[in-house]
Structure formats: structure tokens, C-alpha cells
Amino acid sequence: MFNAADMFQKFQEQRGNAIVIPTGTSGRHWREFSKNESRDMNLGGAMGQTTSTCLGLALGLPDEKVVLFDSEGALLMNLGILATIAGKKPKNFFHFLMDNECYATTGGQPVPNSAEINYAGMAKEAGYASAHHFDNLEDFANSIESIMKETGPVFVSMKMVPEVENAPIGMRQRVPQRSRGETITALQKELNIKNA
Amino acid sequence: MVQEQAAILRPETLIEEFKKNGVTHVVTIPDSETNYLYELMKEQPWLEIVPASREGETFAISLGLLVGGKKPVCLIQNTGMMESGDSIRGMALDSGFPLVMVVGYRGWNRHGVITDSVARYTEPFLNALRINYYLVESNEDGARISEAFNEAQNTKRPVAILVGDEYHGFNRV
User: Of A123, A137, B33, B58, most Cβ neighbours within 10 A?
Assistant: First the structure.
């Protein structure tokens, strides 16, 4: 396993101009490294469906790289999306999975079959153009440059150190973050998108 | 017989309404009632079909397409609409984007007794979420489809088109 913060630091070096959508507890670290906030998006809103929204974004903006940092608990809620993504074959879609083997936001309970499940294998067999798996930072750091040059849909599963939150929701420290609407407005403004 | 033909909702009518209203993508899970419509959609060069694995995906995929400046519609059955409750709430109602959902009204009929529970709960489900809907049963109802698009655009909310399956010709050979 490796730390999400370390992973994001290495990813930032290869981000280029990609649109980035971080999710989950591990995803909060992205803001410590991002250098292009107008292309960072918050697209959450329904259980297990951020992956689907990112597919729609990739289909809607085929000339932009769309990079999702998903979490395994969310993906398990809607595993069929792997087939949906593979079926549409978005060349610009990079699907990273931060697998900490647990529901970190609810106290660290394990997800089903957490230690044995092979998400990269599932993505590859579903029909992604390529799939990778990393359980240490060094291998990830050595591969991320070439991965970001691949043709999508690309799947990258990563074993992440869990950052478990166990305090009652009301007692947790609030980290300011932009709302979904704010990030959508910023991106549409940058790309000059006007809805018909 | 002539009356029966006139009553049929032709799939071409739906396609024409989609084109007239600038639809770019149909995000869908085909159901047993809409095969001919699906075949017809595939023939349209201006229309991209996005097949989903579960109905809840269709609302989330549509939100992403809307963010990218496209104009999607969701085409699903009422059974799948109920499965999609959290996605409709979080990705459609809360998003502030207009979205038209075309929903096959399985089990509904005007003249007989409704025995399918999904038909009994379809309108209460939409009412619970305060989603307005238009019942479309025949070609004469075609203008309601544009009305639904206009309402979605003006209110920035999802609007449903319920396709009554008693008459439509979506499954003709």
C-alpha cells in the first residue's frame, strides 16, 4: 500500500492539462498538489454514480483528457459501469481506483472480499483498452508518465493506505471545498461551453 | 383498422421531436417495448446512443454530457426509473440542469384494469420527487414532447415523458 498524498504528488507531474475529478477521503489530498484548479471538478452527488458522470464528461468533451480518481466502495455500488465504459471506448478517459479495502468514511469497515478482489482484472476483462495495478509508490512513479500517454479507456488500480474517519459526522473537521456547481461553472467558463 | 393505425405512436415521431429539440445523445437501457425505436435511433447520424448497464447510470452519464455542452435524454422503463431514485435526486434534481427522461410506462392501460404494480406506482413515484410528466400515447400527443423539453429548459429541472405502451408502434417488425 502507499499514501494517496504521495501518489497525487507523482501524478501532478504528469497531469498536463487534464480535467481531474478526485473522490473519497483519499481524494482530498489532490488539492494540496493541483496547480490548475479550474480543471479540478467535484462531480459527486449520488452513491456510486460519479464514475458514470465522468464517463458522460469524457464523451461530451472528447478532446480533453478526463481523469477520475475513484474509490473501490463507490465502484462496487455500480460495477456494471465497467462494461458501460468499455462499450463506449472513450479514448480520453483515465480511470484510477484508490483501493484502501475499506469504507474509510464510516469507520473503516471492510468492503466485500476486500483483500482478494482484482479490480484491474475486472476492468481488463470488461474491455478497457488497458489495465494496471500498483501496490507501491516506486512502481507507480515509474509508470505514470507512460500510462498518461496511453489511449483510453485506461484503468489503474492502486492499493492506498486507508485514512479512516470514525468521529461522528458533526464533530469532523470541515475542509472547505468548492461545490459541484462551482466547479462546473468554472470548467464551462474556461472551455466556453454554453448549454443549448 | 384505420383508427387503430392513427392511434399508434410512431417511433419516427419521437425521433423527429428529438431532432427538433437538439438532442445529441440518448442514454438508454433498451426494454422489450422499444426495439424498433432503438433500431431507428441507430440509423440517425446526428444521434449518439450511450447504452448503460443500469438505469441509475443514465442520469449521471447525462449530467456529464450536459456539463460538456451536449443535450442528452434518458430513455428507460418505469421499473428502472424506480431503481434510479438516488441518481435522479443527486444527478438530475440537484444539478440545476434541464433533463428530459423518456420512460416506458410498462403495465399502464387506459381501458383495462391495471394489474402490474409498477404501473400503479409510476406516477406516485414522480409526484413524490415533484417531477412533472407528460403522457404520450399517440402521434397526436407528439407536441407534448416539445412541451416537456421547453419545460425542462425553463425550469432547469427533469421532466418525464411517459410512453403509454397500449398503442405505440415501437416494437413493430
Answer: B58
